[in-house]
Amino acid sequence: DGIEWIDMFPLSSDANGNWLKGTKDERGARVRYRRSDGIHLTPEGAVVVADRVMRDLVQRGLAACGRL
Predict the structure, then answer these.
(1) Is residue 4 pLDDT above 90, yes or no?
(2) What is the bridge-based pairing of β-strands 30-32 and 22-24?
(3) Predicted local distance difference test score (pLDDT) of residue 63
(4) What's residue 61's pLDDT?
(5) What three-state secondary structure class fits 16?
(6) CA angle 31, 32, 37 (to 5 degrees)
(7) SS3 of 19, please?
(8) In whole angstroms, how far apart are CA 52 and each of 25, 42, 55, 66, 68?
(9) In this structure, what DSSP letter does residue 20 have?
(10) In whole angstroms, what is the distance from residue 40 CA to residue 43 CA?
(11) What are phi and psi of 3, to 5 degrees?
């Protein structure tokens, strides 16, 4: 009781179901979301996934604050 399962795969994947790899910043430089092992997140990737987790929590009504 009181446990809510959140599947992290969709939150750490793109719309096609592939793991997030990265993007380009406003200057066009590559920003990697995964470390060289291809699995673990970089700090930049962790920010993206944490934002998605918080949005999911807010949608479920489980977040302590709804400032998103």
Answers:
(1) no
(2) antiparallel
(3) 66
(4) 83
(5) coil
(6) 165
(7) strand
(8) 19, 15, 5, 13, 10
(9) P
(10) 10
(11) -110, 135
